[in-house]
Amino acid sequence: MRVLQLIDSLDLGGAERIAVEYANMLSKEIEGAYLCASRFEGELLSTIEPDVRYLFLGRKRTLDYGAIKRLDKYIKKEKITIIHAHSTSYFIATLLKFKNPSILILWHNHSGASIHLSGIKMKALRFCSRYFNTIISVNEDLVIWAKKKLKSKNVVYLPNFVNFSKGIIPVQEKIKGEVGKRIVCLANLRDPKGHRFLIESFAAVQKEIPQATLHIIGKDFNDEYSNVVKLSIQQNQLDDHVIIYGQLSNPESILERCDIGVLASSSEGLPMALLEYGRAKLAVVVTDVGYCSEVVQDYGTFVSYGDVQAMSGAIKKYLIDQESQMRDSSLFNVHIKNNYSETHVRNQIINLYNSSLENI
């Protein structure tokens, strides 16, 4: 079995992390584990295991015929049997299917925002989906949506996972804030992640607990959204209490030195950030969107998106009640280890690949 994980970039996003993790995990289990970044490289390049066969395509536009030809040649040379296409990489995978009819395409949908697709993007996905052998969805809502809206006959749920055996490289520099009072948000600075809502909630927390600090990890696109978030920080006089790190190749090293993990998103699939929070033994406060409630269950606190009073209240409760914080963080860690670890998902994906090949 030779499987190519196909992803647009190697930036530090959830889908990108999962694509790399799959390639790394499978490199120890199957004949050939491949990874292709079609458009851009990024921080995750350094996390690819030596046994993974890696290709950077350098695609410049959607219909880059030269890049498609190079990937087609590579697939034939390496005798790849399955393309596991993550997120928007499904389009180039479909074009390759036309050239290689025997290739199987598994499309991995990571985004809870998919259910809001419309117009040309939805039409393109619907057309391509008839060539997907299987659609992998990261929550049950996406399974239902795919069955209703797309053409693939086989739609399955498969959770994201986090690698508990991976070593954590500690940061050398001292990080801001008091132990027991550090709040962290692992999310790129883009619209669905609700950073302005989070800043407003944190401002209410900081008024009552001045030792509290908020640590934001994720790509800063330096766009209008980013400017609005930074302006909100200034207007609430939080410059000394909110730290924006940007992208980090080892966010785990910061997470493990924080106490509460938060997500303030308006939409999600199955966020990798929650799994990372679990591995780092953080108490969690999250918006009740996507599959967050299924992941966290009774081991954290949920709030409605935009409810500043509820978000700030939940954070304050954990900051004040250290016993509750430690109990929930420990239980959440065990829950993630038991249900969302690499070992939990490994056999499921290999069985899915095998059954797909058997049913050609």
> What is the residue-mean pLDDT, rounded to a whole number?
94
Can you tell me the CATH superfamily of the largest domain? Glycogen Phosphorylase B
Which CATH architecture of the largest domain?
3-Layer(aba) Sandwich
Number of strands: 13
The share of residues in helices is 40-55%
Q: If helices are DSSP runs of H or I spanning 4 or more residues, what is the number of helices?
A: 13
H/E topology pattern: EHEEHEHEHEHEEHEHEHEHEHEHHH
Subunit organisation of the chains: single chain
**Relative strand content:** 15-25%
CATH class of the largest domain: Alpha Beta
Strand order of the largest sheet: 3-2-1-4-5-6-7
Distance between the termini: 14 Å
Low-confidence stretches: none
The outline comes out as elongated
Structural class: alpha/beta
Instruction: Give a quick account of the main beta sheet: strands, pairing sense, barrel closure.
Output: 7 strands, parallel
Radius of gyration: 21 Å
Features:
single chain, 360 residues, alpha/beta, Rossmann fold, 2 domains, 7-stranded parallel beta sheet, 6-stranded parallel beta sheet, 13 helices, 13 strands, 41% helix, elongated
